[in-house]
């Protein structure tokens, strides 16, 4: 495996996690903009779920780099 493939895959994971966090933040901003209050427990569990989604993407990327993964780890944003 080349260093370029590893770097490109790593950047793809970072982009995926950034999009997940950005969408969660946009949902939070839209709800507060329209005056909807979010319960503290819902906010806490939402942060945990977003963190788990990013963690799963990172672990799946690392496993696929080691040859232990069974294919793609996240939806691809670009056709290859």
Helix-and-strand structural type: mainly alpha
- Measured as a percent range, the helix fraction is over 70%
Count of individual helical segments: 2
Order of helices and strands: HH
Largest sheet, strands/sense/barrel: none
**Can you tell me the number of structural domains?**
1
Topology, number of strands: 0
Cα Rg: 16 Å
Residue windows where pLDDT falls under 50 for at least 5 positions: none
Distance between the termini: 17 Å
Strand percent estimate: under 5%
Mean pLDDT: 86
What global shape is seen? elongated
Describe the structure.
The chain has two helices and no strands. The chain is mostly helical. It has one domain. About 5% of the residues are buried.
Keyphrases for this structure?
elongated; single chain; mainly alpha; 80 residues; 71% helix
Compact description:
It contains two helices and no strands. By secondary structure, the chain is mostly helical.
């Amino acid at each position: 495996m080349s260093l370029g493939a590893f770097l490109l895959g790593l950047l793809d994971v970072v982009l995926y996690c950034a999009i997940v966090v950005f969408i969660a933040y946009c949902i939070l901003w839209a709800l507060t903009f329209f005056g909807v209050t979010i319960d503290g427990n819902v906010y806490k569990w939402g942060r945990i779920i977003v963190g788990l989604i990013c963690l799963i993407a990172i672990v799946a990327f690392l496993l696929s780099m080691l040859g232990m993964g069974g294919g793609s780890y996240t939806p691809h944003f670009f056709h290859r």
